[in-house]
Each structure stands twice: as C-alpha cells, then as structure tokens.
C-alpha cells in the first residue's frame, strides 16, 4: 500500500468517524419541553442565556388557533409533536399529511419577570406567525384557514418584555407547496442580548464563508479570462471558478439567507429558485472538473447525459410554478446525491486500483473534494425532509469542499510549474552536454599536420640538439595534456590556464619558424583570475600565426593584449600580416557555416564569434588593412574566488 493510499484510507475513516459522532450528538440533544411545558426553574437564564425550545409541544392539526381560543378553552384535545422536526408523525403515533396547516403551543414557566427577552425563528415551513402571551411578535408570509397566500421562510428575531413569570408561545404554521411542513428548525429563547449576539455571529460567519469562496471563484475566473497560458494548460480552471461562485450563492441561500441582504426586495420563491439553480449549475461544473482532471474518471456519454439532465432542470425551476418545481426539487435532491456519490465511488475505486494516470496528490485531493460534497448533499437532503434541525454540518462541508477545490487548483499548477522546471532543467543539462560536446569536438580538431610538423621538428632536433628536442617534446606533451584534459564538466577556464595553453602552442611553433615568429604579451595581472569560455583566445592567436605573419616570408609579430577594466575583460589579438578581406569579415559576422573549416587547428573565426554571441551576447570586432589585422572582443569579468597571479609578461622572441 502506497503512502497516498494510507493517507486517503486514514483520512476517510477519520472524517467518517467524526461525522458519526456529530450526527449522534445531534440526535441526542435533550428535550427541554415535556408535554407542552418547559419549566425554567431548573435553568438559570443568566447562566444559560440562550435556550433551545426543543421537546414535545402541543399540536393541533388543521387549525389556526388564536390566543383567545386557548383563553376560552376552544382549542380542543391536542396531539403531541416533537420540535424541531417535520409534522408527518406525532410522538403519540398519529400521522399527518405533508401539506396543510397546524398550530403549536408551548408554555414557559418560572420565567424571570421584568426582563427583556428575545426569540429567534430559524426555519418554519412555509409561513408562520408566533404569539407570545397573546401578542404577535413574528410573522412570515400570509395565510388563512383556507390557503397560503404568500409563502415565506426567513430566519427572524423579535424581542419583548415579560411582566409575568410565564410565557404562552403559540405558533401558527401553514404549508401548501413545500414538500413537508412543520417547525423544522429550532426556536431559540433567551435574553435579548443573547439572541442578538447569536444572530449576528451566524450572519457574520456565513457572510464571511460566502465572501471567501466568492473571492476564490472570482480570482480563478479572472485568471482564466486574463491568461491564455492557463486557459491552454488547464481546461478545468473555468469550472473551478464557476463552482466557487455557485457555492457562494448556495451559502447565501442556505440557513440565514444572507443573500437577501444583497437583494432586499427579492421574493421568497425567487430566492428559492436562485438557490436551486446554483445547486444544479454547481453539479454541472463538478462533472466538468472531474472529466477534465482525468477523462476516464467519467465516460463522455455519462458526462453528457448528466449535464443534459441538469441543463433541462434549470429552466424548469426558473419558469415553472412553485408547486411544480418544488416537486422537481425533491426528485433532484435524490438525483444530486446519486450523482455525487456515484462519481465519488468511481474516482475512489480508480484510486485503489491504481489505474489512473493522474498524480497521486491530484487524485487524493479530488477524492477529498467529492467526499465533502457528498456529505453536504446528504446533509441538505436530510434537512429538507425535516429530519435534521440545522445544516451546520452541511454548510461546513460545503466550505471545505470549495477550499479543497482551491487546493486542487494549487496542486495542479504546482505540478505544471514543477514539470516546466524539470523540462527546463533537462534542456539546461542537454545544453550543457551540447556545450561540453562542442568543447570536446573543438579539442579534437587539432590538426594532425600540427602534430606531424611538431614531431618532425623534434626528430630533426634529435640529430642537432638533443636537449632542445627534449624541451620541445616536453612542451608538446604539456600542450596535449592541457588540450585534452580540460575539465569537460565546466563551461569556463581562467585566463591563466588559457594563457598557459597559448604559450605552449607558441613555443612549439617557434621550433619550426624560429625568429620569423615574434609574440608580444601584454597581460594585466588583474585579468588572470577572470573566467572565460575555453578555446576562445588560443584559436585567435593560432589564426593570426597561420593566416597573418606566417604567410609572409619574413614572418611577423603578433601582439596579445588582455586587460581588465572594472567589470569587463578586453582581449585583443593583433598581427602585421596581409589582412582580411571584407568578404571574410562579413562571413564571420553573419555566421555562415557554424563549424566552417579554417586553416590552423580547425577552429574557425565563425565558430568563435558564434560562441561569444551565445554565451555573452557580444562578438568579434575587426580592424584590418593591407599590413595587418586587429581582432577584439570584450566579455563580463567574472572572476574565481581566488584569482591566479602571473608575473611573467613581456616578449617571446
């Protein structure tokens, strides 16, 4: 089992275990109200300023009872219903229809008198009125005993004073369109300060989460719109951005309905439509993300079929009457869970089989995102059916889902960057090997006739001057050693080493040409430690000897000048030979024929000029006339940490 497999297995088990305990804790919340009565004597309001009115309430099906109905004893015999929860089945075993109307009642006893209290309504489907001691404190929607005129279901708060130690809370509920009615979210009772604080905290938390996800989505979409590079390299960036936008809308629609702060005049059903359309668009974007991350995760036909189904649902939700699209939403809730669960299982199985050609980090992050969105979808489904009192777990997992997609994008771009870096490094190494091969090739271009001539000179000296022959042979050995044993792993040599090779070459050539060859050295000691590319100066000297002075019967003089001026190194090779033609200079500057042959050791001026351009962005400069040529170039003076000093300078003649 690979490390990523262990991480995913451990992570899924840990989150599943956490979910088990969270749901179990939700199911074990204490019922404070018993048989329609909640006694606050055992609860200190000052110590516990916020009390959920959970428990068993009186329940009157099919009636919209007023406070005076209870005062006059006209309410009749009650049933019993657990709050929060849907009203399909009471605690006394009675069953009720999904739609209709009803009245709930709860008595609070031993309430501290003379204080200002508050009440918060989270979710009552799908229109409601709340009375406290006969006074209407909250109203959401419009309805009567025959029908619901305007359905509305927003979180609300109200404050009131209680001059007496009891509170009679009556809640009228009407639902004629939504799937299931009832007080499905908790009613909270407490001090005014506690209610306001609780409400503000929830609003701020959800607004912050929605804003964060919205900002991430906008960033991705701007990145997509503004960078053709990212559009080409990652086809999933556009659905990434859309998913975050839709998730932000969904967060604004759920629970506290914070999106209504931005759209204060929006109707309830319009808000409902927006939330569901955002949900369907989010599923489409998720399908595109999975498909574009790795096409075999989701067959093309399956992707197209799912996309088509959701694309058809969006206009249906937008245009159909509430009674129609509410039932459609109920069906699509099951479809949503089936789709995300199916995709999650497909990607997870592919991961454990190890058949997907996807980076393990990308695969694992995608699994985490799909797991999170699956939990969110299931949690919202349970809440919609009134089987859960809140969507706190679902909202948390929706935020984590959006953040996990952001992590997925970051990982994908990191991998693109890393792969680009690896390609760049590979190209760099290939270029370095090319340069080393070029250097090796240049080293191998020492003309055989140079060796033959040198050895012939040694043989001749053996008959005339054995000591001189030994000296020349020693210099030839050193020259060959310098040439062939040059550090092929380095792109540079010091001027001192290049100069040593030049002097050896000149000394060997002087055996043949004698006094006809004169070389003047003007070497700046500060230049000896400067590093240059190898075999860039010696070929200039050799070219001057071959094509400059040696073609004259009387010989000539070559002057080598190397000086350092601040951050630049200047090299000049000058001879008093016959000069160069304009055509020759043009051929060198234009670079025709990169390794074009030239007399000497096979390294032409064209090659030297090309290497200077490649490494330094500079080139050879020529001054020529009928009695000589002057070749100059300059490069950055990059020195080794310990510069080499050489006191020898002057004339070899």
Features:
51% helix, 653 residues, alpha+beta, six-stranded mixed β-sheet
Description:
By secondary structure, the protein is of the alpha+beta class. Helix content is 51%, strand content 19%. The chain contains 17 helices and 23 strands. A hairpin with a 2-residue loop joins strand 8 and strand 9. The longest helix is centred in the middle third of the chain and has 53 residues. It starts with a helix and ends with a strand.
By oligomeric state, this entry counts as: single chain
Please give the largest β-sheet.
Answer: 7 strands, mixed
Task: Report helical residue fraction.
Answer: 40-55%
Distance between the termini: 77 Å
Q: Spans with pLDDT under 50 lasting ≥5 residues? A: 593-602, 641-653
Briefly, what is this?
The protein is of the alpha+beta class and 653 residues long. The chain is 51% helix and 19% strand.
Write the layout of secondary structure elements.
Elements: H1 3-27, E1 37-39, E2 50-52, E3 55-61, H2 67-71, E4 79-83, E5 100-109, E6 115-121, E7 124-125, E8 127-132, E9 135-140, E10 142-143, E11 148-150, E12 156-162, E13 166-175, E14 182-183, E15 187-191, H3 192-226, H4 228-233, H5 237-253, H6 259-262, H7 268-293, H8 300-319, H9 322-353, H10 360-384, H11 392-444, H12 448-464, H13 466-484, E16 493-494, H14 495-513, E17 517-523, E18 531-532, H15 538-549, E19 556-565, E20 568-575, H16 582-590, H17 605-616, E21 621-625, E22 628-636, E23 650-652
Parallel strand pairs: 1-5, 17-19
Antiparallel strand pairs: 2-15, 3-4, 3-5, 5-13, 6-12, 6-15, 7-14, 8-9, 8-13, 10-11, 16-18, 17-23, 19-20, 20-22, 21-22
Helix pairs in contact: 1-10, 3-5, 3-11, 5-7, 5-11, 7-8, 7-9, 8-9, 9-10, 10-11, 12-13, 12-14, 13-14, 16-17
